[in-house]
Amino acid sequence: MTSLPGRLSLIFLGLALTSLAAGSASSQTPRGHGAEARDMELVGHDDLQGRSAYQPTIHKQGGRFIAYVGHHGGKARNPLTGTEEENGTSIVDVTDPARPLYLAHIPGASGGSEQGGAQMARVCDRQGKTYLLRTFGNVVPNSGHEVWDVSDPAKPRKASTLVTGLTSTHKNFWECDTGTAYLISGDLAKTDPLQAGPSGWRTSRMTKIYDLSDPAKPIFVRDFGLAGQEPGSSAAPVGSRVYFAYGTSTDGVLQIVDRQKLLSGPKAPTPANLNAPEISRLYMSPNWGGHTAFPVLGMTIGDWATNTKGNVRDFVVLVSEAIANECREFRQATFLVDITTETRPFSVATFQVPESLGGFCKRGGRFGPHSSSESFAPIFYKKLVFIAYFNAGVRAVDIRDPYAPREAAFYVPATTERTAERCVTEPTRSCKVAIQTNNVETDERGYVYLVDRANTGLHIVRLTGEAAKIVGN
User: Which has fewest Cβ within 10 Å: 236, 237, 264, 381?
Assistant: First the structure.
């Protein structure tokens, strides 16, 4: 596949269609829609056994690149075993991105809805081995976190269970250098068997912090959340700070926390102890939430070079999640928050995809952002951020001028026979087939990995044309 020339792509405002293979779009996609692209092209695809996917994590193991994909709840047949398995975690060798090789599937726990899901996947090398940190379901949906030894990614072995008896586990983060893990969870159980002290938080989500420097011997550090408010959905530690995003899609808060005070402070979750590590917080409009907070620090603002002060700035890319099909909600967006003066964070720019460019509200499923890429790989860091945009695919956002972010490229995968319908019930029930790009990640080689919520699998893409020049490809 070749990309359209940059000038022609701009004339079409990103609506030019590119087929996945020879032949018409209709012959390749009997239902739904074909692929669409500007300055991005498809390199490879794996259907992930037709499982609804949430989070991809790309990890370099020796000379190989391995994708660990967390799934939503559900069941599908695993051709490697010949049996139906709860969705769990997929492990795919993407060393050759044009020919992904499905290595193994770790089933989720038995049970309906999200009980079998294992949405998050984080991977670190510790003590000469490679470990997978994942969520899993058990008694209640999304009820715990566990660690697997994936030193041989084709033969994963369970290493430890961190905590059970939770609800609503979601995104997490694992510091590979220190071993500290931030586990987003709801703690509604009466007693946590691996933790001294009370549980029973009055919230759907809070953060449980563990020392996983030895993943086989987890050590509980503390619980953390906003005093008196609903804790949210992501944590991004960088250096001496941790950036928490709360609220997902409404009543959002960005909180900047002193990492040392967070990890060494008193463990009891009293209001005073919860407030002590906080440096500042930014309250968002009640219409928007904080699903993902991605720090981009030390940005040199080119146009400010002649200014004698302030031309190096720090930012957080703050994403609010679209949650309703066919735009039955407030329009969600991505915000660039200037945190240079970290006691006074301030939103300075907004990125969104105009609905009119693709008639996205009528396509089916969700339209809007879900999350950003979270890789610090130098090839993209401080240059491009990739936003998963549900039925608008992945959008590459040029943030070199963070006060005026612009779209540099996009890729919307084609639907397949596996792509599941998404329905609305008002004014009458109606179902449509559309791609639902849920999360996106990158690797140091410059490949971008998309996973689909509607069972369409893993897509591996790369930049072309003018967008590729931004990163020197």
Answer: 264
